[in-house]
Design goal:
The protein has helices at about 10, 25-35, 65-80, 80-105, 105-120, 125-135, 140-155, 160-170, 175-190, 195-199. By secondary structure, the chain is mostly helical. About 60% of the residues lie in helices and about 0% in strands.
């Protein structure tokens, strides 16, 4: 974030360094910019950070002050709490609409809504799971496997996710892997009828 380039129109939108923040003012600034534009990551070294130098407490070695770092984080989080709550409410509503769209058979709408959720919250388990199952339904087993893998990685162990991954592996013709996932799911929920039937 030390080498980000941005269009000066963001200044006209009111994006400014908050001088009330003694640390994490850069994070706060990019959060302001994010309300107006998206970012693109470029895999290239553009700066060298000497993290042990200075007194921000945000580095390492002599420049490490965890208590100050965390206190600064909390200030930024509190400043952005109302915006975060609005975003999370929009994500929850889009997730609800995606489930409803799939239930009524409107797969294009369900896909669009899941993708919208994942753009804003790339680790959203519900959207990844639902989009994975839609991918399975459409025969896109590569996407289904990737999405279920991400959902499982970002969630505590859950029998439903294990069951769904078992279905994906079954569709891929990998009976041993499918059985392993079904067994993991059944260990968490022995009364699940779908898992019982599979085993």
């Amino acid at each position: 974030i030390m080498s980000a380039l941005f269009h000066r129109s963001l200044l006209a939108e009111g994006c400014r360094v908050d001088e009330q923040l003694d640390i994490h003012e850069d994070w706060d600034f990019w959060l302001q910019c994010a309300q107006h534009t998206q970012f693109q990551y470029i895999e290239q070294v553009t700066s060298l950070w000497h993290g042990a130098v200075g007194n921000s407490g945000c580095g390492f070695g002599a420049n490490e002050d965890n208590a100050r770092y965390v206190a600064g984080q909390e200030r930024v989080k509190e400043k952005w709490r109302p915006v975060r709550e609005q975003v999370m409410a929009r994500i929850a509503e889009a997730s609800r609409q995606a489930v409803a769209a799939r239930a009524r058979g409107d797969l294009p709408a369900a896909i669009r809504l899941c993708q919208e959720v994942l753009r804003q919250d790339p680790e959203n388990v519900n959207a990844a799971n639902l989009l994975g199952m839609i991918s399975l339904q459409r025969g896109d087993l590569v996407s289904a496997h990737q999405l279920l893998t991400a959902a499982i990685a970002n969630s505590p162990p859950h029998f439903g996710l294990f069951y769904n991954m078992g279905l994906v592996e079954e569709a891929r013709g990998n009976a041993a892997a499918a059985r392993s996932w079904f067994e993991k799911g059944l260990a968490l929920n022995p009364s699940h009828p779908g898992l019982q039937q599979k085993l």
